[in-house]
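Dear colleague,

Following up on yesterday's call, I've attached the two folding results inline so they're easy to grep. Please treat them as preliminary; we haven't cross-checked anything against experimental data yet. The first protein's sequence and C-alpha cells come first.
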Amino acid sequence: MLLILKKYHKILILLSMLAISSLAWNDNNMVVNGDLGMDWDKNGLPDYWSINWFFAEKPNQVYMDKDEKIDGNPSLKVVVSTLDVPNNFAGRIYQDIPVESGKTYQVSVWVKAKDWQLLKGQETGGVNLSYWLQGTNKQWSSRQDLTKPLTGTFNWRELKETITIPAKTQAFRLALFAYPGTGTIWFDNVKMVEVK
C-alpha cells in the first residue's frame, strides 16, 4: 500500500509541475518562467534561465527578491558593489527561444534600478534588453542591443521593443543585460510574443 501511495505521490508532483509549467506560456508568452518566479531546485535563482553575471561574486549578489516585484511572484535582484572583472565583461541573464524567420515579435521586461553607475571611464551603456541570433548553421551572431541602456535610479518601468527575425535564423537569445557598473537592478515579467 505504501509503495502505491508513493507512486501516486510522484505522479501528482509531475502533474503539478506540468500544470505550473504550462502557466509559463500564458498570454502567448514564449519565455519560459517569464515572471522569474519558478525555483524548483530551491537555489534562490529562477529556473529555465542561464545566469552569467560574471561580477556577481561576494560581496555582489544575484537572487530572487520576494519584496520588490510587479506581481505576486519574486523579481530577480542584482546587487553589484564591487567590480573585479576580467576585461570588464558585463553581466547577463538569458534564455534561448525558438523563432521563425520573417515573423515579428514584441519583447519586454520590467526593470527597476537604484544608483546604477557605469564603470569609471565608460561613456555609454547601462541596463537593457540585448539579443543574439542563431543561424541554421548553429552559430550565434554578435550581441545587439534591443533597447536603449539605462542608468541611475528609477522606479519600475517597462522596456519594450519589436524585432523581425531575419532569414535563416532559428533561435533568439534574449538577455537581461547590463554593461559593467555598480548599483542595484531588479528584473521582472519578461515577455516575448508574436505580433500578428
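Below is the second protein, in the same order (sequence, then structure):
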Amino acid sequence: MDKIRVIINNNQKEVKIPTGLRMIVRRCCNAVLRLEEFKGSAEVSVTFVNNEQIKELNSKYRKKDMPTDVLSFPMGIEGKYDTDPNTGAKILGDVVISMEKAVEQANKYGHSLQKEVGYLTAHAVLHLLGYDHEAGGMEKVRMREKEELVMLQLGFSGNTSYYLK
C-alpha cells in the first residue's frame, strides 16, 4: 500500500465530533487496507450525517425506508477502481456514517463513540473492497473477524457485543 487519502466531511449538527475522531477514521481506513494488503494509493470519502440524511440515502439506494448506521458506496468492481487523474490513487468509494446512530449504538453496547465509529468505518471499508455479509455464512464470519482484527490493531479491546449484521 502506498498512500491513502481519507476525505472526511461533517454534514450534520446533531452530534459534536470529538477531538481525535477524524484521526481514528483515518487510522481505521489504513488498518483495513494494510490487513487486505491493498496495492497502490487509495482514496476514500467518509461523511458524517444525521439519521434523516442516512434514512433518505437508505431509502433511495437500498429501498429501506429507515435510518441505518452506515452505508458504503463502492466505486470498484472486482478489484477494478476508477483512478483520480490528479494523484493516480484508486477511488475506493464513499462511506456515510449516521452519527446519531453511532451514539445510540455506542450507548447500547457500552463503549465509546470513538470505538463505534471505528467499527463502522472498518465495516464500511471492507464493503468498499468487495466484502458482503448480507448472504450470511462464512463470508459474514470472515468479515466480522477482519473487523475485530482492525479494532484490536487500533487499540480497542475485543468485544463480542457487536451484533452480526
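For the second protein, one point worth flagging: Residues 4-153 form a domain with the Collagenase (Catalytic Domain) fold (CATH 3.40.390.30).

Best wishes,
A.L.
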